[in-house]
Amino acid sequence: MTLKGAILLLCTVSFTVTGQILMKKGININPNLNIKSFFTSPHLLLGGLCYVSGFVIWLNVLKVLPLSIAYPSSSISFILIILASSIFLGEAISLFKIIGVLCICTGVFFIAKA
How far is residue 75's CA from residue 77's CA, in Å, rounded to a whole number? Predict the structure, then answer.
């Protein structure tokens, strides 16, 4: 994996995780989702913008990294979502989540070594 590819991948994952957390906060604040509430909710708007930004960066990731490396490596977002949802949303981290994170890390390690 090139340095440029790793940085782009990290940016994609960061935007995806940030977007997910913002959208979850936004939908918790305003559970009656409709077009008007989407465009008047700063959390939902910013979360959507993060998601779109992550997608645009992802397209650049695909230009510089093989898909067989890029896509599995993006699963790091699952790990960061668990941590971020615990920190920003107060969600619990269970033993099974920790085991799942270890499995994901192991898989990403083996893919990177291949």
Answer: 5
